[in-house]
Specification:
single chain, 6 strands, about 20% strand, about 40% helix
Length: about 110
């Protein structure tokens, strides 16, 4: 399944994750995100629709960030974080404090920012 993508080539692109982003979708989702990074300097990751995610999805966010960093590109989180997603972050140890919103997510993820 592909995430929804909006934007123009070379301008910022926005990827909106589906309701469920779990291990079954990770391989195709990573390929999709990697391809989008080739088309833009800034990739906006919209969290509005995301209701269920597992640890593999969080690991995917780190992998995409590393790929972006290697190409001097940016990842920006947008949208609303669900309480279920925030709890997954806390339970799995990827954050030590609850992020108040998507604008705080990158800073809250342990060792996410370079």
């Amino acid at each position: 399944m592909e995430a929804g993508v909006k934007g123009k080539k070379n301008g910022p692109l926005t990827v909106t994750f589906e309701k469920r982003s779990c291990i079954e979708q990770i391989r195709s989702l990573y390929s999709d995100l990697e391809e989008k990074l080739k088309q833009t300097d800034t990739l906006n990751l919209n969290m509005d629709l995301l209701e269920q995610a597992d640890v593999s999805f969080i690991q995917l966010l780190y992998a995409v960030k590393r790929t972006a960093d290697k190409s001097d590109k940016s990842i920006v989180f947008t949208g609303t974080l669900t309480q279920a997603f925030i709890q997954t972050l806390l339970d799995s140890g990827f954050v030590s404090e609850r992020p108040a919103g998507s604008d705080e997510l990158a800073a809250a993820l342990i060792d996410f920012q370079s």
